[in-house]
């Protein structure tokens, strides 16, 4: 569980300050110090050891508490390993396609293609507007899903039966999620 300093008014407090001599959570003290009831509920859900054991450092992003590089990748993408059964985009590496297309899809799914809006948000001095329509920022989602020019391409693909009719309708606006369908 990650706690930021702004939720606890006394950042020097120790976990042991909130444990009674009976080795249970001190609810009164938790409620006195922490105003977020949901946070208190989560803390109370953490089991306390019955016997005395040494404190130790654990990595909070794996169920084992041991550090792994894979878990840092999940963390960077906002995925907690305890809820993720496998890396959601691992399927990409199993595709039997040319490497440059594979890397392109990988970048697409990881919001890593150098579209104008992304470059602009990272400090590159350029116009973030889509050069195709000139109306919206050129994000990956816009370029591949919602730009009027792109929509015409999708519609042509439907007309030629390259993709099922209605393929884009009923899906969310996540291009990575669309590729998974
Ligand atoms: Zn556009």
How does this model look, in words?
By secondary structure, the chain is mostly helical. It has 2 domains: 40 residues, no CATH class; 91 residues, no CATH class. It contains 8 helices and no strands. Helix 6 packs across helix 7. It is elongated, with a radius of gyration of 24 Å. The mean pLDDT is 78. Zinc ion binds next to loops. The site of zinc ion (ZN) has 6 residues, from loops.
Task: Please give the structural blueprint.
Elements: H1 27-33, H2 37-44, H3 69-76, H4 99-109, H5 116-121, H6 140-146, H7 148-159, H8 175-180
Zinc ion is lined by residues 130, 132-133, 136, 142, 147.
Q: What descriptors fit this protein?
A:
181 residues, mainly alpha, binds zinc ion, 8 helices, 2 domains
Quick summary:
This protein is mainly α and 181 residues long. The chain is built from eight helices and no strands.
Describe the main β-sheet briefly. none
Number of helices: 8
Hetero groups? zinc ion
Note the gap between the termini. 33 Å
Give me the count of strands. Answer: 0
Low-confidence segments, ≥5 residues, pLDDT <50? none
> What is the approximate shape?
elongated
Mean of all residue-level pLDDT scores: 78
Share of β-strand residues: under 5%
Run of helices and strands: HHHHHHHH
How many structural domains?
2
Helix content: 25-40%
Whole-angstrom Rg: 24 Å
How would you classify the helix and strand content by structural class?
mainly alpha
